[in-house]
Amino acid sequence: MNFLSILALFLYAPAPAAAQEPQAAQAAREPFVTPFTAAEMSGKQVLIETDLGVIAIDLRPELAPNHVGLVMRLAADGAFDGTTFHSMVRHGIVQGGDPLTRDPERTAEYGRGGLGLLDAELSDARHVRGTVSAVVAPGRPDSGGSQFFICVVDQPGLDGQHSIWGQVAEGMDVVTRISEAIVDDAGRAVERIVVRSLRIRDKPPPEVPPFSTESDAELAAFRALLDTTHGRIAIDLYPDRAPNHVRSFLRLVDAGVYDGVAFHRVVPGFVIQSGHLPTRSAPLTERQQRFVRNLEPEFNATRHVRGIVSMARLDDPASASTSFFIVTGTAPELDGQYTAFGVVSEGMEVVEAIEAEPTDGETPVNRVEIVSAEVVRR
After folding, report:
1. Residues with Cβ within 8 Å of residue 87, at least 6 apart in sequence
2. CATH architecture of 216-377
């Protein structure tokens, strides 16, 4: 069975009891129509607190006003609280919103509840990573309701078949972890992943990136502390020489981007290097990912001597982003070619201990990592 076939088993829920009713009775049922105005639905988010973390979803009433209205109405009634994410395809989709999942004794019925309330509101919007869409019963596109699914990755095969009503704004790391839950042969979660609460809030304004408003002189008051598996390294910064690199580095440290990142390159008498994201022990959150960006070079007159901290890059001078190195000798060939932005002020003995690690080529044999990093005032 291919991946799309597996998805179809979950996204088209088993027909609920209502599907067995006489055709006339089904025709008499009035679909839900939102009681909210466009203004009341605009600029809203769904905030879902789960056992595995928080997911924030931007509502999209311009695509599916009745679906959004139903979610808002049910949220106000607490209808989602205590339900579970009951079905998932690893790194594919996760499915929730079934009121039957409140009852642990009704596992065999999970996927049948909360349907038959809405007519389809199909659009040209695409099922990309983080899209939230309505589950329907087999052969009944006008059977949406409280059940929904979230795309963990792009799902173009679902475009035009389901009513899209939201987009994950924060918490895709949580969605991914939910998709990794162990399932039984029917694709149902073996352990309960409970929605502790689901509420509607105003969409918060975009975050002003940390260290954006301080002057260059004010940035000089900060230092970065890297707690490694070999001890602590303190780095003082040069905002007068490379202000944008300093802002970026402080931002990445403060956001926890460097937590769990390894020292992946050690060249005795030359450099030790870290910050390469593929070495990180856990994926970045959406917030952390927003702070990762390429930097225009800020080459300066700082000499690359012992203790200098500088940004690594590829051939493109504007390709530096997260990876940095600490010079352990004298490297004049790096001067004016790489952006030096700081200096080790404490912990050179830790740098030397990392430099002394056995290597396979330039890769440490034993994992050496930044356990945690923080920004402090000097």
Report:
1. 10, 94, 95, 110, 111, 183, 187, 188, 189
2. Beta Barrel (2.40)
Helix-strand-coil split of the chain, %, nearest 5: 25, 30, 45
CA 267/CA 10 separation, integer angstroms: 51
Amino acid identity of residue 309, one-letter, is V
Do domains 3-202 and 216-377 share one topology? The answer is yes
Least confident of 6-10, 199-203, 217-221: 6-10
pLDDT in tens, 261-276: 999 999 999 999 999 9
- 3-202: CATH number: 2.40.100.10
Least Cα distance to 39 among 67, 64, 61 occurs for 61
pTM flag (> 0.90): no
Contact 284, 257 (CB under 8 A): yes
* Every domain of the chain and the residues it spans: 3-202, 216-377
pLDDT tens per residue across span 178-195: 999 999 998 999 999 999
